[in-house]
Design goal:
A: ABC transporter involved in vitamin B12 uptake, BtuC; 15 helices; globular; B: alpha/beta; Rossmann fold; 3 domains; six-stranded mixed β-sheet
Chain lengths: ~375, ~525
């Protein structure tokens, strides 16, 4: 994509971007009168210190799902920026399954239905823009973003009306039955007889890892993935090859939406155990930056997801430790990383190419 | 390096290059090039695709900066940072793909970028007068108020030349200018080039067509693998010698094998008319028959319906009126066929645009070798590197694709070798029908021989071949029958035997009807 050798594109460029983001963040921190090194130490401690790792991995789970969603669509050069809405609908799928079935079926079966519901509802919410793009030429960026608004409106209506917890005035459903919730990792570890700090980390982290492998196999080891990549590089060539481009576009969006929908497994089925408003909280958008930084490869997305998880968790620690660093300033630091590794991901490509490749040429 | 240079020494050099070197990554596009382009001549730069002639032209026009070496223009040292510098020094360029705004008039295109102030009207009258003057003195008549969209290709090129002259060009570089022209338009271009020369200017013609060099150039430089392979006066050389300099060895001619007997029809199309929604038909009432073991060539100036015909027959565009019969299937508006279905019925297609359509450039060669043939990529829904490797290796060997690396991305091969990847894939199964679009466009001479031999071999094995080419030489060398398209209509179908470039050229422009066939 950048014309750089792979090792530069995948290995060096993201690190350079990260370093520059941290440099910019250091300037901001210095401006408010704190010592940048001390702040970064607290950030690291906050992300990976005792008891913190679970939180970091919990955030990372969200980023991996939404990052994979963006990356899978992008293989077919589709810019799915509707992961927010698709995740929201995934949450709805879970809530409907749990609330309607938990008294009828055994808990583990309800959980399975809820997982399928998350994927199906997320997929359905992405298929409509995908179909509109493929068969009617509506631009997917416009439609997916509109569907985010629709999802959020739908959720307000449902949670303040039909699905609202009986006898209460806040926009949320009642709690799901204990038996259908995804087990927390600290509970599993304690059951095995080890000590573990309490954290929101739950079984969906494992699902995220499985999703990474599945996406890799799908994209690089199946004919469907071959078709997606062909469409992404040259739709003309794909059509020439007899690939049913429209159907593949719809299918890619369905899978992308299913992955985004699975983000709700972590938040709704794993942590909140009820459907609340705005649980997607921007993870869908940040997933685009995660996919960009991870170069649309599951391994890269896992690494970038962990980085963003660490930033979110460590960043949250900052305003406990420093009076001058408020929650908003922590957001600024996170925003800088997103800016440099997402929006400006390729800003330094020509400069890097000249610096490193010219030297190589001189050696040769 | 400038061996055999006779009168060039005596003349002043319009452009003088010394030791010019340009590298793109691992590719040495220009390697220590010394070149003198004598002033007041038509000078040809010829070479195979990838020999570095376009890079050299881009350096002279300031589009690229040379890594090393020096340049003089009209005897003064020149270091160009952009085309604006080149224009200031009197260098103009006519690109292969025209740089015109199609919805502007000729006048508006000429004044684009030099409107002379915020308000348009003031400069316009002055510019109109100067433009008309230029047109007259150089024999470049064109209506200044005509929309570019309404002009035929030959006249658009004229506008490009006027644009350059208007900006004070005394040295005019033309990059493959005849690719889009009819033989007649080509002749008229050559008249213009001679007029520029006679007015004291210098024209630099970049081409791979030896015949044109011999027809219009006074002197010629031959490039091979980024280096200058020789410099000749055209009246002291032959096309044979130039071809040898280009390729570095003797070049043979494609030999036409003896005609075989009666042939059975394999594909029949009747009354094909096709239009883009809401516009004039691009194809009108086209009928044809492809027979086993026969090559039907479609001749015509590029853009006269050939591409649409290929799209219709390959299933990339849906039949609107008329029908196609192939392998027992009738394809019409009510019964469309997809490219995949047609391929399963035994149709192969070498598309005209291999870079956008025939190949997925970032894909490895072995991945491209299964494009459109998913059953070769691996078992069931899976792709397998081993299966693709096993499929690609014999193809690479048989077609001598270089470098022989199945895992190299298609973008990393030269134009000729990219084309060989496409041909290897499409020829492999000995298709019942082969649609062959521009098989040798942008391919070097050595590879053209190989490709022509493979096409003839496929014909001998019984494939029915539809050849679309803008190279009349290629059509005359390969075809059994020739169908000429003009403005989307069949201007005539003639047997190749006895057909001449001149006669076909007249039919291509609609000046003469062929006999029916």
């Amino acid at each position: 994509m950048t014309g750089l050798p792979r090792w530069l594109d995948i290995g060096v460029l993201p690190l350079v971007n990260l370093a520059l983001a941290l440099l910019a963040a250091a300037v901001v921190v210095a401006l408010v009168g704190e010592d940048p090194l001390e702040v970064f130490a607290v950030l690291l401690q906050g992300a990976f210190g005792p008891g913190a790792l679970g939180y970091t991995l919990y955030y990372a789970t969200n980023f991996v799902f939404t990052g994979l969603a963006a990356a899978l669509a992008f293989q077919a050069r589709l810019f799915n920026i509707g992961a927010e809405g698709q995740a929201t609908l995934g949450g709805l799928g879970i809530a409907l399954a749990c609330l309607s079935l938990e008294t009828v079926l055994p808990g583990w079966l309800v959980a399975l239905v809820a997982i399928a519901g998350a994927a199906l509802f997320g997929a359905a919410w992405a298929v409509v823009p995908g179909w509109l793009q493929a068969y009617r030429g509506s631009h997917i960026v416009i439609t997916t973003i509109m569907f985010n608004f629709l999802a959020s409106g739908l959720m307000v209506w449902l949670l303040s009306g039909p699905m609202m917890r009986p006898g209460q005035g806040s926009p949320q459903t009642r709690l799901f039955d204990e038996a259908v919730r995804l087990p927390a990792v600290h509970d599993i570890v304690r059951a095995l007889g080890f000590e573990a700090a309490r954290s929101p980390l739950n079984l969906s982290f494992l699902f995220a890892l499985i999703a990474c492998v599945a996406v890799w196999v799908l994209v690089w080891r199946t004919k469907f993935g071959y078709a997606l990549r062909a469409i992404g590089h040259s739709e003309e060539a794909a059509r020439y090859a007899g690939i049913p481009v429209r159907r593949a576009v719809v299918a890619a969006m369905a899978l992308s939406g299913a992955l985004a929908g699975c983000m709700a497994l972590n938040e709704v089925l794993g942590v909140q155990h009820k459907l609340v408003l705005n649980f997607s909280a921007g993870y869908g958008f940040t997933g685009i930056a995660v996919a960009l930084m991870g170069r649309n490869h599951p391994l890269g997305i896992l690494a970038a997801g962990l980085l963003f998880g660490a930033l979110f968790q460590g960043g949250a620690e900052l305003n406990f430790e420093f009076e001058t660093i408020t929650h908003e300033l922590a957001l600024v630091i996170q925003g800088l990383v997103i800016l440099f590794s997402g929006a400006l991901a390729y800003m330094f490509t020509p400069w890097l190419a000249r610096l490193l490749l010219a030297r190589n040429a001189a050696h040769a | 390096m400038s061996g055999g240079n006779g009168s060039g020494e005596a003349r002043r050099a319009a452009v003088r290059l010394r030791g010019v070197t340009k590298r793109f990554g691992a590719v040495l596009a220009n390697d220590d090039v010394d070149l003198d382009i004598p002033a007041g001549t038509v000078h040809g730069i010829i070479g195979e695709n990838g020999a570095g002639k376009s890079t050299l032209a881009s350096i002279i026009y300031g589009l690229y900066a040379a890594d090393r070496g020096s340049m003089e223009i009209d005897g003064r040292p020149a270091s160009l940072r952009s085309p604006a510098d080149a224009i200031r020094l009197g260098v103009g360029m006519v690109h292969q793909h025209f740089m015109l705004v199609p919805t502007f008039t000729v006048l508006e295109n000429v004044m684009l970028g030099m409107e002379g102030g915020f308000r348009l009207r003031g400069g316009e009258a002055d510019i109109r007068a100067r433009l008309e003057d230029l047109s007259r003195t150089h024999g470049l008549e064109v209506d200044p108020d005509a929309l570019i969209d309404d002009l035929p290709v030959g006249l658009r090129q004229r506008v490009e030349i006027l644009k350059a002259l208007f900006r004070g060009a005394r040295i005019l570089i033309l990059d493959e200018p005849t690719g889009v022209l009819t033989p007649d338009e080509t002749d008229r271009l050559f008249v213009v080039l001679r007029a520029i020369r006679d007015a004291g200017g210098t024209a630099v013609l970049i081409t791979h067509k030896l015949r044109e060099v011999m027809a219009v150039c006074d002197t010629v430089s031959v490039m091979r693998h980024g280096r200058l392979a020789g410099h000749r006066n055209t009246d002291e050389t032959t096309t044979g010698e130039l071809a040898e300099l280009m390729v570095g060895r003797k070049v043979g001619q494609t030999v036409r094998p003896p005609e075989s007997g009666a042939r059975t029809p394999v594909l029949r199309a009747a009354g094909l008319t096709w239009r883009q929604a809401g516009s004039a038909p691009r194809l009108q009432d086209v009928s044809l028959e492809l027979r086993a073991g026969e090559i039907l060539a479609v001749a015509g100036v590029s853009g006269n319906g050939q591409s649409e015909l290929l799209d219709l027959l390959s299933g990339l565009a849906d039949v609107q009126e008329g029908y196609v019969e192939f392998a027992g299937r009738r394809i019409d508006a009510a019964h469309p066929a997809t490219p995949a279905e047609l391929r399963a019925l035994g149709l192969a297609h070498v598309p005209e645009d291999r870079q956008r359509r025939g190949l997925v450039l970032p894909f490895e060669a072995r991945e491209n070798a299964v494009l459109g043939r998913p059953e070769r990529a691996g078992p069931g829904p899976w792709t397998s590197g081993a299966a693709m490797q096993a499929h690609a290796e014999p193809l690479i060997e048989r077609f001598d694709i270089r470098p022989p690396e199945p895992r190299r991305p298609a973008a990393g091969f030269s134009g000729g070798n990219q084309q060989k990847i496409v041909l290897a894939r499409e020829f492999e199964s000995v298709p019942a029908v082969l649609l062959l679009g521009q098989p040798t466009r942008g391919v070097d001479i050595g590879t053209i021989e190989t490709i022509h031999a493979e096409v003839m071999a496929l014909k001998e094995r019984g494939s029915a071949i539809l050849l679309v080419s803008t190279e009349l030489d290629e059509i005359l060398a390969l075809a059994d029958r020739i169908m000429v398209l003009n403005a989307g209509r069949v201007a005539g179908t003639v047997p190749a035997e006895g057909a001449t470039a001149r006669r076909l050229g007249l039919m291509m422009t609609g000046a003469s009807e062929g006999m029916g066939a």
